[in-house]
Amino acid sequence: MRISGLATGMDTExxxxxxxxxxxxxxxxxxxxxxxxxxxxxxxxxxxxxxTDLKYKxxxxxxxxxxxxxxxxxxxxxxxxxxKATNATGEFSGSIKVDKLATQASxxxxxxxxxMSPAQVDSKKLSELGxxxxxxxxxxxxxxxxxxxxxxxxxxxxxxxxxxxxxKAPNSSITAFYDAHTGKIAMTAKxxxxxxxxxxxxxxxxxxxxxxxxxxxxxxxxxxxxxNGLTTQRSSNTFTINGFEVNLKQVTNxxxxxxxxxxxxxxxESVVKFVDDYNKMIEELNxxxxxxxxxxxxxxxDEQKKDMKEKEIELWEEKAKSGTLRNDPTIASxxxxxxxxxxxxxxxxxxxxxLKDLGIEPIKDFKENGKLSINEDDLRKAxxxxxxxxxxxxxxxxxDTDKGGIAIQFxxxxxxxxxxxxxxxxxxxxxSDNFAMGRSMKSMNQQIDRFENRLKMLEDRYWRQFxxxxxxxxxxxAQSANMMNMFGQ
Length: 489
Known about the structure:
about 500 residues, four-stranded antiparallel beta sheet, 3 domains, flat, alpha+beta, five-stranded antiparallel beta sheet
């Protein structure tokens, strides 16, 4: 039971509250330190995410040969023949004369019943169209490419479900539909190529007039063309030669000429994007390690926030959060390593090459902290003259004796930094025991719990002492009153 000032008239609660403020100061310092550590951990993780994003972006562009082997193809008659580079490493030129385009095989049934509505197609059973089934029947349809579509027809099947089974069969190579105008079933091979659609003879095929004299079969054809003097064929109008996709569109009377060249614009665009992303990262990391630390602005406690306006809290915490990564050795070391990487020559098959040979150099102003500048004219010239050398500079694979191209070394450098930061600050979902800052925060939480227990015990002791004092004074007052009453009598 707490007695507050009944005998003394003192505001015991306020006195104890003021006394506890002094005892809480060490706890507030631990709490502030923990809050600052949390902000620091969040900033480390943010940096790590940004580094990871750029690492994968660089790997997926500058680390791939395809980025530097992009080609443009000039064609004398693009309406007849289309050509584009898909996975080409060399140049491609010559002529194509198209004698015949590839076509798809088709199969039409004899007339069944004209003008059936979609509802009738889905409701009319095959038995109503003359199909008599005493047991389930397997129907096999073979396309010109040898692919087989196999379905099972039951007595419950309608014309609609029969066609759906063909269209939706696993790896179906046939499309089929019912034409209400003619009353016929039409089948078409999904792929072009020489040959006919064949259907297993049986009750279903015969009754639906898909075989026999009433069925009409049209064979598919291969594409026939002359490529650089070689007369040849393909089952499709679209095919690949030496990493170039060729698309035959029309029969031609004269050869169509073509020639490829490096797609300088796209390669330049990729390199410029890499430099822009790199410069942005360099700027952000330098801002982090040079951000001022305002030691007079410590994290606010809940009690302090009660006496402040929202804008005041925002401005205060902006200062308090500043400088969490100031002079961080991991980030500073990363920046040094990257500056060195961007200046080192790379051994290629045609000799040592550096970014400087591509017109990419560090900005001379020391305030730019190692950002890169590009002379696009020099870059275009290097790409035009030797695109493979540009590829090797960025994406040459690493070996036991060679560290590889810039993008490969960039990935390794970033991997190392990711690992160091993760060991220090963890990642989202990390268990606190698995990284250094997590273990520190766990220790602080334990300190806070122990300190709060001690404060509670201290506060309880103060209350007991003040209560005892109040009770003693109250007894003394009672005794004094009794004596006065006795003397008064």
